[in-house]
Amino acid sequence: MTTLIALEHLRKVYGSGETQVVALDDISLAIDHGEFVAVMGPSGSGKSTAMNIIGCLDTPTAGTYRFDGREVTTLDRDARALLRRGQIGFVFQGFNLLKRTTALENVELPLVYRGVARAERRRLARDALAKVGLEGREGHSQAELSGGQQQRVAIARAIVTAPALLLADEPTGNLDSERSRDIMTLLAGLNRDAGITIVMVTHEPDMAAFARRRVRFLDGRILADERLAS
Questions:
Q1: What is the span of the domain harbouring residue 38?
Q2: What is the DSSP string of 7-31?
Q3: Which residues are 225's β-sheet partners?
Q4: Sign of CA dihedral 117, 83, 220, 187
Q5: Strands across the sheet with 197-201, in order?
Q6: pLDDT at residue number 17
Q7: How far is 192 from 194, CA to CA, in rounded Å?
Q8: Secondary structure of 77-124 as H, E, C letters
Q9: How far apart are CA 74 and CA 96, in angstroms?
């Protein structure tokens, strides 16, 4: 497999002087195409900062970040935004659906920003909803969907643009244990069958067990990086 994400000697510092906080302290990490990686660590360990940099939402103070061979750290804000919209899908703990729109319209949204024609984006959105098991629910609003179904809509919205990378930030944090397992089974299936690279932040060992690799952060450094047997 080829490398999708390459972080080399990455450092991120917030503030200065007595208020300075070192969020990332010289970390290096490579993630290949097709991997499913769980990122773990206590609050303040640096895992969220690393995810924000990988997702082109933040920039490092020092070090380099390459995405699929492309140097990201030298890109300006607009170029990072284009990379983010074109290559990275996001799933959050809070679903972040638009309340007064249907499941189909929520999934269409990234395609609207891309200027995709209405008929084509409808087709792509329907296909994405079918992939997450919501065929027949296209016309349902957020209020008509369970928490697990809402997260499935959010995942469909994240994959409708066929991203190379899916970043999931505590995707089961608002769900009960049964729905959490359903969502993790779905993510594992998308990784296995569609080849989508997934990097997921979680504090739950049961959810991390669905990934094939676990990276643990502590005090801005990578404490452990273990690959699990297939």
A1: 3-227
A2: EEEEEEEES-GGG-EEEEEEEEEEE
A3: 215
A4: positive
A5: 88-92, 165-169, 197-201, 36-40, 213-218, 221-227
A6: 83
A7: 6
A8: HHHHHHHHHHHEEEEECCCCCCCCCEHHHHHHHHHHHHCCCHHHHHHH
A9: 30
Q: Which helix (H) or strand (E) holds 213?
A: strand 213-218
The pLDDT averaged over each successive group of 10 residues in the chain (230 residues) is: 94 90 95 96 93 94 96 94 92 85 94 92 96 93 90 94 94 89 94 94 92 96 87
25 contacts 221 by C-beta, under 8 angstroms = yes
Query: What one-letter code names the amino acid at 202?
Result: T
For the chain, give the longest Cα–Cα distance: 57
B/e letters for 74-107, b = 16+ CB within 10 Å, e = fewer, are ebeeeebeebbeebbbbbbbebebeeeebbbbbb
- Residue 180 is given by DSSP the state H
Measured between alpha carbons, how far is residue 14 from residues 7, 19, 29 in Å? 19, 8, 21
Give how many domains the chain has, as a whole number: 1
**The pTM is what?**
0.93
Dihedral sign (CA 191, 110, 200, 3): positive
Q: Is 86 left (phi over 0), alpha (psi -120 to 50) or beta?
A: alpha
The CATH number linked to 133 is 3.40.50.300
The answer to whether residues 203 and 43 touch, using CB atoms and an 8 Å cutoff, is no
- Token pair, residue 122, equals 């409808």
